[in-house]
Amino acid sequence: MGCEVSTSHGVVQVVQEDEEDTGEFSDTLIDTIRSTWPLLSHDYVTVGLEVFRRIFNEIPTVRVLFDSFGIDQAETLERHQIFREHVQKFMHVLESLVENLERPEMIQPHLIALGARHAAIVGFHPEYFRFYSKCLLEVWEAELGEEFIPEVRECWEKVIDYIVRSMSHGYHICITHQLEHFVKETPIGKLV
């Protein structure tokens, strides 16, 4: 019971809510993000694991979503190769956007598709995306220390918000498609 993340014309819908949400990032934001990213990505897995540790502490039920990896203890999850690969992919999504800040529309379809994939995870709730934002900013602050000044935080908030909005959009496209399919395929006569 998957979902299609495209319109009937094969074009992924682009998220735009208002003028500030057009996905155009200022030169200052791009410079700020690119100057701090090397400090945050120096050890993909360790930094990514810390983000997930914080997410698991914030919402323990999220940990259960990873039971499909065949692991039942939080301590062993971090050492499990499949989970570590997931963490690496998570960090790679961030890096892809950092590399495409002048052209975020290049990565947005991938973010939308990623959001749709999360809709297919039993037990995943779209509000988890907001916890991702919170935990990511906490880890960035810990990693950057004194360099995480308000201007840097604001730039990262905009980039992370762009990711969350795009993924949430994909999540909702998928759920809507699943509901439309369910309604179309469910015979009313059998319910009576």
From TrEMBL:
Domain Globin: 24-172
Keywords assigned: Heme, Iron, Metal-binding, Muscle protein, Oxygen transport, Transport
SUPFAM superfamilies cross-referenced by the UniProt entry: Globin-like
InterPro entries assigned: Globin (IPR000971), Globin-like_OT (IPR050532), Globin-like_sf (IPR009050), Globin/Proto (IPR012292), Mb-like_M (IPR044399)
MF-aspect GO terms: heme binding; metal ion binding; oxygen binding; oxygen carrier activity
Domain of life: Eukaryota
Keyword Phosphoprotein recorded: no
Signal peptide: none
Similarity-based family: Belongs to the globin family.
Name by which UniProt lists this protein: Globin
Source organism of this protein record: Biomphalaria pfeifferi (Bloodfluke planorb)
Phylogenetic placement of the source organism: Eukaryota, Metazoa, Spiralia, Lophotrochozoa, Mollusca
